[in-house]
Amino acid sequence: MTAPGRAAGKGRTGDRIGGDRTGRPRAPARAAPAVPRPGVARRLHRGGGAGWIGWLLAVLIVPVALSGTLLAVWPAVERVAYPTRFAATGAIDPDACVTALHAGAAPDRRIVAMEHGAGVLRFTTRGADGADRLFACTARGAGVSVADATHGAEAWVRRVHAALAVPWVGRGLVAAAGLALIGLALSGLALWGVAVFRGSDGWAWHRWLGLAAALPVLAMAASGLPLLWRGAAADGGAAPLAHPAQPLRIVEAHALALTSGTVARVAWPTRRSPDWLVTIAAGTARQVKVADDTGGALAAVARSDGGGTGEGVAASLHGVRGTGWWRRMLLALTGLAVVVLVATGSGRRTIHTRKPSG
């Protein structure tokens, strides 16, 4: 029997199922918005919400970016720092440099590669212990002068860029900086579409700069990671030949006969691959193999060191060989953009985003 004043089927609020106070059925639950919320990207972009993580990443990223910027414009730096190199007349004889290097270096030290610089030839050598040392050969009167450049300014900048000039754990720190850059670039792109562009906060320009630099930063960081340990992983059992059969002048001449351009780098033949590897800075081919026994050019491929391998593609993207001036400027601007973005973003405590509609 129903209580007076109450309709059948209506009880206390706690006894109703699927209805409201008026007895109407409840509306079905609204589905979650299709657009993902920016919470994860926001936390990743802010270093998990802990301010000290952002400052720690800045300490790792800024030296790598600044050293990369310096290396990109190093030819111009050399003209200012070493004007005597450009005042010297005549071309540097690479074979004379090799002779002088063999005469002054330890007997167990072998030449790995030679790079053409502005008024200087740089030789990378490797000892029996696997340690590399750099030597610079410059013109001196009618001859040449070879000096140990392992502890020079450029070598130090290269060590900072490759390992923060920190032994043992330096490459791991640079790898962490590279992974952090990838995460920051991806999370920044994810936030860009939902970020609130307030004219009063003064940070809209930060977001526009981040948008412009995101893809170059991703390319530099992703291509730099596989190059970190290439020296340690390469040349296993492939020591360079101590005294190859062909002189450098013949090797370079045969390589240039097959393709136009200028020689940027020459890698010595090894026991595993008895061919010279000549990298061309510009022209129809990027790399030419020259046989050490005959001196004849074997093949020309339109790729940088490593051919079609992952390391070769990474080296080409990272601009470590035969980079033109326009690309050097792009690399330098990318490095400066990273420094500006990290410096301004590290002090950013909050990121305002739009709430999903509905």
TrEMBL record:
<feature type="transmembrane region" description="Helical">
    <location>
        <begin position="209"/>
        <end position="229"/>
    </location>
</feature>
<keyword id="KW-1133">Transmembrane helix</keyword>
<dbReference type="InterPro" id="IPR005625">
    <property type="entry name" value="PepSY-ass_TM"/>
</dbReference>
<protein>
    <submittedName>
        <fullName>PepSY-associated TM region</fullName>
    </submittedName>
</protein>
<feature type="compositionally biased region" description="Basic and acidic residues">
    <location>
        <begin position="12"/>
        <end position="23"/>
    </location>
</feature>
<feature type="transmembrane region" description="Helical">
    <location>
        <begin position="325"/>
        <end position="345"/>
    </location>
</feature>
<feature type="transmembrane region" description="Helical">
    <location>
        <begin position="173"/>
        <end position="197"/>
    </location>
</feature>
<dbReference type="Pfam" id="PF03929">
    <property type="entry name" value="PepSY_TM"/>
</dbReference>
<feature type="compositionally biased region" description="Low complexity">
    <location>
        <begin position="25"/>
        <end position="39"/>
    </location>
</feature>
<feature type="region of interest" description="Disordered">
    <location>
        <begin position="1"/>
        <end position="40"/>
    </location>
</feature>
<keyword id="KW-0472">Membrane</keyword>
<feature type="transmembrane region" description="Helical">
    <location>
        <begin position="52"/>
        <end position="74"/>
    </location>
</feature>
<keyword id="KW-0812">Transmembrane</keyword>
